[in-house]
């Protein structure tokens, strides 16, 4: 029985290929797709379940996010079998995690999720603003990179943020100015 | 009588070849071109391809319609465009659908200054005139064609048509004279037909002895074509009047194979009556052929190493050991083999040791390493099952290949493959590997780059001209932007996809195998091979894959991880590089590397890990490395890197990283290979 409904994306905490293939093997899924990552294209492992449903694991090295595309009826069992990362937990970690490395990791996933599934939401742009103003150069670099995901839908906000940072962030001023130019080009 | 028009068949083969190369097979090509036609998106060239496909399939009506549309499309697009080919094909389509007058007028209208086109049109005129029964005029047209052609080979095809027209007009002496050059030449594609016609002419002229002799000579050659001619001769009224019927009957009788040596072996006798084997095209051989087939196999391993396989002494010895005592039991079925610029078929070989008749050894050809022949019991279902599983149940697409294995293949500079001209080993850079695999008895010469999700080549190769082949090959080596270079070739029989990736080209280039396959139903073949050759191959790999990858390195990630636990500090870097290359698609690796760097006291190791992350464009990992880096200098370097876009591998038009060309020229950092060698 194959699912006719649209697949649902389940966001995952980082999970190894071995975990995914072991899970597939234990459930008797057959590997159908094994695509390497490329520019704008994730690493994909596609499986066919015994009853004909399709399960695709995607891993994007840039930004570092992973997800599963599964039929609705498989969401719950797979959320239990793999380290699912619900949006609420992602946002919570992005905003409040104590360790910077954890904040960056969550913000990447949040930004990618929002850019692809909920781009109009303003909250994630605020998350980027927090990184852009962070005292750590690495955090600001991460924020700067993720801002590029938001320029299409939040051009004015990102343009203003980039302009502000170009003035205040001497260390990365040139990079922020480049982002200002990108926003300006989109404007025209 | 249907004429064999060389110009037409060449042109059709060429066009159909292009259509098949673009769309993998005739059905897909027709489907796609039909879609385009319905969407009004088909070009004049597309219409020509469509016409060629339908004409070759015998549908002259559709072919003619497509050609008329092609001529109109060309006239619409550019009044000066060259539509000669369309009009030539259209004239043939008219002839094939019975409009011989129209075809003759169309051939007459094919004026051109080019000699080949004059020859083609003249032969077409001859064919149309023959169809109209105007044989004398047809002969003149063929003579005109022969005058223009200077090449003996091409003249041969026209000669046969001329002789047929002469024979039909009953000018036998002239016909025999026309045929004479063809009778003296063995390799010409028309030789059999010319010899058959010669025998008919001799019979009609009352030269019975000459006719039978000609038939005997013709039908003594083994082969499927001979069977057809034999059957035709038996029913041919031209030979009815021959008085020496006994000699004639012997000449045209189907030869029988004396398989009594098999019947005498209780373990083998039942195979002779196995209908499944017979249906699969398995033909048992006579005792003499069986002995000589075994001798031929042993002789193969008495010579020097053959090209296309990386031989080791252990492999050579193992092959000799398997070949010892074997006789050729049977041949068949015939399956597609290597995809060179035309179709090549392999006839599967079944061997048996008469002293151990309980076991059959199956291999695809004498050139395939005997140590990788599949060993099966000589029982009725086992042999047919093995032939079906190994050679006939071919996966149609990559999605049917359910397993993947990745392993270190070696450093290009340190691997050696024999140069086919000198025999000397040379560094295994991609061009040298292409030449090596061109001779492989197990892997295909055609390859494709990472831009293709699946094998873009047709399952069975059509005829294609060498320049066109070069163009297609280059196009098919393309890579995807932002990816690692991967060049994949198919295993000839299991159709496994044997990918070779080129990693870290700007540092110390590393090759990695990425093999996608269906598990080998006979893992004991690989177990036996590993034991004999001291190799570590997974036993579920197909035998043709192992034959192709033998002689290169094979080191899987797990083994590298184990070595990393025990090696000295200076050995850590090369192993980390290998691990990154094998597991670069696995996000867990980035986390492991970051964790390893965070806890490592050596700045060299931490810097090296950062460099690896840079090679693969792992920005998130670099950010984490920067956060954890205790030394300001290294941290500053990583931050500098993060300010810029991640680097992207640039590929040349052969689908190889541009940096690899520098490596091939010797201009690269070889700082840790020596250490790796020491460890080996």
Q: Could you describe the 3D structure shown?
A:
- Chain A is α+β, with helices and mostly antiparallel strands.
- Chain A has helices spanning 17-26, 72-81, 87-96, 100-117, 123-132, 137-150, 155-168, 173-187, and strands spanning 8-12, 30-35, 43-48, 54-60, 65-70.
- In chain A, strand 2 (30-35) and strand 3 (43-48) form a beta hairpin.
- The termini of chain A are far apart.
- Chain B is 54% helix and 11% strand.
- In chain B, the strands form 3 sheets. A 5-stranded antiparallel beta sheet of chain B has the order 1-2-3-4-5, sandwiched between helices.
- In chain B, a hairpin with a 6-residue loop joins strand 7 (416-418) and strand 8.
- Chain B has 32 helices and 12 strands.
- By secondary structure, chain B is α+β, with helices and mostly antiparallel strands.
- At the A-B interface, helix 1, strand 2, helix 4 and helix 6 of A face helix 27 and helix 29 of B.
List keywords for this structure.
heterodimer, A: 188 residues, 5-stranded antiparallel sheet, 8 helices, B: alpha+beta, 54% helix, disordered C terminus
Q: Which helices and strands appear, and what pairs or packs with what?
A:
The complex is a heterodimer of chains A (188) and B (680).
Chain A lengths: L7 E5 L4 H10 L3 E6 L7 E6 L5 E7 L4 E6 L1 H10 L5 H10 L3 H18 L5 H10 L4 H14 L4 H14 L4 H15 L1
Antiparallel strand pairs in A: 1-5, 2-3, 3-4, 4-5
Chain B lengths: L5 H18 L2 H13 L5 H13 L3 H18 L6 H13 L3 H9 L6 H17 L3 H14 L3 H17 L3 H12 L7 H14 L3 H12 L4 H12 L9 H8 L7 H4 L2 H7 L2 H5 L3 E2 L2 H14 L12 H11 L3 E10 L8 E9 L2 E8 L10 E4 L2 H13 L10 E8 L5 E3 L6 E3 L2 H9 L4 E7 L16 H10 L9 E7 L5 E7 L6 E8 L5 H11 L9 H7 L7 H10 L2 H14 L4 H12 L4 H14 L2 H10 L3 H11 L15 H7 L8 H7 L1
Antiparallel strand pairs in B: 1-2, 2-3, 3-4, 4-5, 6-12, 7-8, 9-10, 10-11, 11-12
């Amino acid at each position: 029985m194959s699912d006719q409904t649209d697949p649902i994306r389940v966001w995952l905490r980082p999970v190894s290929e071995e975990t995914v293939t072991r899970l597939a093997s234990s459930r008797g899924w057959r590997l159908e797709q094994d695509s390497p990552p490329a520019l704008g294209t994730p690493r994909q492992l596609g499986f066919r379940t015994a009853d004909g449903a399709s399960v695709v694991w995607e891993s994007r090295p840039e930004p570092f996010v992973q997800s599963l595309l599964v039929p609705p009826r498989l969401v719950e069992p797979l959320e239990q079998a793999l380290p699912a990362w619900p949006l609420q937990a992602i946002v919570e970690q992005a905003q409040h995690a104590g360790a910077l490395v954890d904040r960056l990791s969550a913000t990447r996933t949040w930004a990618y999720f929002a850019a692809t599934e909920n781009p109009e939401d303003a909250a994630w742009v605020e998350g980027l603003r927090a990184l852009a103003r962070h005292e750590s150069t690495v955090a600001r670099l991460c924020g700067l990179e993720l801002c590029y995901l938001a320029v299409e839908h939040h051009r004015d906000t990102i343009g203003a943020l980039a302009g502000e940072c170009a003035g205040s962030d001497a260390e990365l001023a040139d990079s922020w100015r480049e982002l200002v130019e990108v926003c300006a080009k989109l404007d025209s | 009588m249907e004429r064999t028009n060389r110009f037409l068949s060449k042109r059709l083969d060429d066009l159909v070849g292009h259509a098949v190369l673009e769309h993998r097979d005739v059905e897909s090509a027709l489907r796609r071109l039909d879609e385009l036609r319905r969407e009004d998106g088909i070009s004049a060239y597309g219409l020509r391809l469509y016409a060629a496909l339908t004409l070759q399939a015998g549908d002259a009506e559709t072919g003619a319609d497509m050609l008329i549309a092609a001529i109109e499309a060309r006239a619409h697009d550019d009044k000066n465009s060259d539509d000669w080919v369309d009009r030539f094909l259209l004239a043939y389509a008219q002839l094939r659908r019975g409009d011989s007058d129209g075809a003759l007028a169309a051939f007459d209208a094919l004026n051109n200054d080019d000699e080949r086109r004059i020859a083609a049109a003249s032969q077409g005129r001859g064919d149309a005139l023959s169809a109209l029964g105007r044989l004398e005029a047809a002969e003149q047209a063929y003579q005109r064609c022969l005058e223009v052609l200077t090449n003996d080979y091409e003249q041969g095809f026209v000669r046969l048509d001329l002789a047929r027209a002469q024979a039909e007009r009953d000018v036998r002496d002239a016909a025999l004279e026309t045929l004479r050059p063809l009778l003296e030449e063995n390799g010409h594609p028309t030789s059999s037909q010319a010899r058959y016609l010669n025998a008919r002419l001799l019979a009609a002229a009352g030269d019975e002895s000459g006719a039978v002799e000609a038939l005997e000579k013709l039908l003594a050659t083994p082969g499927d074509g001979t069977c057809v001619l034999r059957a035709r001769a038996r029913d041919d009224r031209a030979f009815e009047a021959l008085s020496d019927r006994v000699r004639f009957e012997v000449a045209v009788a189907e030869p029988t194979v004396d398989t009594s040596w098999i019947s005498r072996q209780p373990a083998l006798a039942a195979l002779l009556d196995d209908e499944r084997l017979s249906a699969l095209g398995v033909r048992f051989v006579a005792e003499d052929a069986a002995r000589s087939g075994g001798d031929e196999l042993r002789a193969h391993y008495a010579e020097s190493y053959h090209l296309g396989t990386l031989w080791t002494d252990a492999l050579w010895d193992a092959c000799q050991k398997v070949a010892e005592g074997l006789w050729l039991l049977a041949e068949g079925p015939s399956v597609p083999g290597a995809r060179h610029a035309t179709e090549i078929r392999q006839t599967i070989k079944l061997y048996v040791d008469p002293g151990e008749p309980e076991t059959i050894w199956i291999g695809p050809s004498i050139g395939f390493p005997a140590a990788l022949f599949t060993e099966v019991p000589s029982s009725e279902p086992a042999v047919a099952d093995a032939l079906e599983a190994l050679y006939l149940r071919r996966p149609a697409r990559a999605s049917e290949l359910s397993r993947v294995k990745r392993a270190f293949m070696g450093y290009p500079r340190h691997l050696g493959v024999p140069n086919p001209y000198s025999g000397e080993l040379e560094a295994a850079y991609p061009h040298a590997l292409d030449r090596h695999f061109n001779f492989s008895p197990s892997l295909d010469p055609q390859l494709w780059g990472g831009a293709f999700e699946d094998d873009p080549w047709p399952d069975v190769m059509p005829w294609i001209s060498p320049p066109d082949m070069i163009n297609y090959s280059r196009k098919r080596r393309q890579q995807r932007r932002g990816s690692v270079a991967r060049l994949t070739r198919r295993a000839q029989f299991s159709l496994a996809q044997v990918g070779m990736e080129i990693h870290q080209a700007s540092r110390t280039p590393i090759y990695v195998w990425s093999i996608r396959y269906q598990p080998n139903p006979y893992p004991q073949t690989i177990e036996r091979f590993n034991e004999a050759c001291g190799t570590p191959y997974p036993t579920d790999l197909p035998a043709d894959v192992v034959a192709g990858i033998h002689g290169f390195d094979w080191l899987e990630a797990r083994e590298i991880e184990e070595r990393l636990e025990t090696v000295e500090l200076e050995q850590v870097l090369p192993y980390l590089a290998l691990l990154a290359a094998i597991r670069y698609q696995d996000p867990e690796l980035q986390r492991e590397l970051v964790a390893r760097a965070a806890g490592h006291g050596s700045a060299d190791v931490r810097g090296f890990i950062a460099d690896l992350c840079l090679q693969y464009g792992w920005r998130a990992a670099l950010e984490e490395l920067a956060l954890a880096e205790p030394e300001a200098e290294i941290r500053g370097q990583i931050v500098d890197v993060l300010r810029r876009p991640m680097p992207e591998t640039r590929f040349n038009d052969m689908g190889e990283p541009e940096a690899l060309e520098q490596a091939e020229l010797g201009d690269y950092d070889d700082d840790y290979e020596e250490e790796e060698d020491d460890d080996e």
